[in-house]
Amino acid sequence: MIKLLRILAALALIGVVVVLLLIFLPHHLTEPQEDLAADWTPEEGQGEYAMILGDCAGCHIGADGTPFAGGQPIDSPLGPIYASNITPDPEHGIGEFSLDDFRAVMYDGVDEEGHDLYPAMPYANYRKLSERDIRGLYHYFMEEVEPSSNEVTETSLMFPFNMRFGIRMWKWVALSDPGFEPPFGDEVENAEMLNRGAYLVEGPGHCGACHTPRNLIFAQKGFTAEDSEFLTGGVIDGWTAPDLRQEGTQPQDWDQVEMARFLATGRNAHAGVSGEMELVVQYSTQYWTENDLLATAAYLDEIGHDVARESDAEDDVPSLSEEETVTLLGDADPEMALGPRLYLDNCNACHFSDGRGAANVFPQLAGNATVTAPVPRGLVQTILEGAELPSTEAYPYKLRMPGFGWRLSDEEVAELATFVRNAWGNDAGAVTAADVAGIRSAIEDSPEGHGEAAD
Amino acid sequence: MSSDVPSTRDFRPTRRGFLQGGAAGAALTGLAARARAQDAAEPVPLDQYEPQFFTAAEYAFVLAATARLIPSEGDGPGAIETRVPVYIDLQLGGDFGQAADWYMEGPFQPDADPLLGYQSPLTPAEVYRQAIPVVEEFCQNRMGAGFADLSPEDQDSVIKALEQNKDPLSGSDSGAEDTEVVESGAGGGASGGSAEPATSQPILSAELRDFFSLLLQNTKEGFFADPMYGGNYQMQGWTYIGFTGARASFKEWVDKHDVPYPLGPVSISGERA
């Protein structure tokens, strides 16, 4: 008995020591990836463009639209994490940051006081930024952004996630090596373009933060295309961030110009952007250069897997072929099941019986990643609340799909969603009325809930 | 009209017609359990409906009158099965009754040429409120009973007279009593300056002369308007004429010639039939 107590006491002591070390031991910070002269300055516009690539505005824009004033909540499973003020205001922003402090944030997720940052900040991806982009960003935020004295609500998650030293342990496991390694050698045709695409996707674009699955401790499963699960789909804000690599996924089916067009305008011949990706298009990719967009599209095409995604094992809903679906809807038989009947009554006028919609206007439902997503939240939320394509420079008009939550019961939405998930060759699991009810209340509870679905 | 045509007295035939209409409606919707219309709570029967605008006497008149304008004994549903009186009650109690979006500032010339449109200072609600007692009094004096208690044939003759706004017996030998009715009903101004021959006095004054056309128009609306307004119950009006409601999705049918479109209607709120 005494022996056991001794062991327990020893373990407790070791625990305390480890925690103290975690808290007080200085961080080992990542070195610059390139030796640049101390007086090196970025070309005009380079810093701003690096900011655009990194989509800093998407999270750090102030609630009133003030650039980079911070304060917007990012919903995490553990509670809201508030984006910080990254204007050069010395008190409320990052005006006191040295270049090394700034790099430590971007590479290691450590702020100037040595606190570990929550991984809502995608430093796991920004670790791949070049020193030139780091210097450009630092120059941009220090010299070109207007200071704002906006004071941001302090993030306070529940115990134990408010113990920031825990993040330090997490980072040991969750982060990959810093720096970007161009994956394509000279033997590959287009190597320069593909390497640029790889840099954009893996680094500043931080596509993997949403589109790569995460493991049990919420670490991204892979940071480069060498990892087979990289960009094979994740979950963001309850929505499926679609798989970008498997055979049959949209970037693999679309030609590269259409992929680039999607990122540049939020719409293309097949699809319209939805969910969190709207913000990415709105603040970031629509301003990427055409070359960078084409490089991104070429890279995504290059890293496609040859195998089709495994079909959902629990899917017991028979899939209809395109021809069967067109015939079913075209016959308009009064005895048809509720799902296709609801499609005719609510959807068919725009998305049509062939499920192809209209280029740049009505998204195609056949093969649509939001429609067939493993987690149906995106589809159900779109049916309930509608959706709006963001205004982009190429397509300023915000095309709006109305919501149908006021018109359809949970059972009806479930029938309709299950139908479109299994029509035109789509093959995804059924949606239940309970799923819909849960999503309805989740939308109502969310801070940005429009309440349209509540009626 | 044959003698076996039921009267609307006591609503008994009305209720029967209503039940028949309900059964027909259910049959038209195909599998009743599937349609949302069937999930909704059964509305109160018309004879238990508590009007928002009408008094009990006015409501009894409107029930009886609309039942003659779109009778239940035709080859389709009638005003009663489609709950037209509910629609009219809700409309008169709402913006329409108040003429909320009409120009109502005058000058008013109620006896202007009808081609010049609505010229009365009265709102539709006021027209109904003031005209129904005049019509009821006309029925009492001419037929010896209120409108709802008349035989269908007599109700039809009253409606015809209303449509013409001419008292068929006025100026005849039927006695001073009738003339008095006409004068009291006509009110000031209606007879003055009228080019009508003396043998044909108006039943309603100029300010009320649009009552019949309002009633007919509102009855048609109640039969065909979206069910969210209280009429066109279970979209029977639409089903009867083959109108598909708020679907707006027929691209696939543009090229199908001489093929009847098979699918029933959908309402704005998503009700199916």
From TrEMBL, chain A:
Annotated heme c 1 binding sites: C56, C59, H60
Pfam families: Cytochrom_C
Domain Cytochrome c: 42-145, 334-424
Transmembrane segments: 7-25
Gene3D superfamilies: Cytochrome c-like domain
DNA damage listed as a keyword: no
Keywords recorded for this protein, A-Z: Cell membrane, Electron transport, Heme, Iron, Membrane, Metal-binding, Repeat, Respiratory chain, Signal, Transmembrane, Transmembrane helix, Transport
InterPro entries noted in UniProt: Cyt_c-like_dom, Cyt_c-like_dom_sf, Cyt_C_IC, Cytochrome_c-type_DH, Membr-bd_ADH_cyt_c
Assigned GO CC terms: plasma membrane
Subcellular locations according to the entry: Cell membrane
Details of cofactor binding: Binds 3 heme c groups covalently per subunit.
Protein residues bound to heme c 3: C347, C350, H351
SUPFAM superfamilies according to UniProt: Cytochrome c (SSF46626)
MF annotations from Gene Ontology: electron transfer activity; heme binding; iron ion binding; oxidoreductase activity, acting on CH-OH group of donors
Keyword Nucleotide-binding: no
Swiss-Prot/TrEMBL cofactor(s): heme c
Ligand binding (heme c 2): C207, C210, H211
Chain segments annotated as coiled-coil in the UniProt record: none
PROSITE patterns cross-referenced by the UniProt entry: CYTC
PANTHER family: ALCOHOL DEHYDROGENASE CYTOCHROME C SUBUNIT, BLL4482 PROTEIN-RELATED
Protein's name according to its UniProt entry: Mono/diheme cytochrome c family protein
Naturally occurring in which organism (per UniProt): Pseudoroseicyclus aestuarii
TrEMBL record, chain B:
Sequence segments annotated as region (Disordered): 165-200
InterPro entries: Gluconate_2DH_su3, TAT_signal
Domain of life: Bacteria
Cited PROSITE patterns: TAT
Descriptive protein name: Gluconate 2-dehydrogenase gamma chain
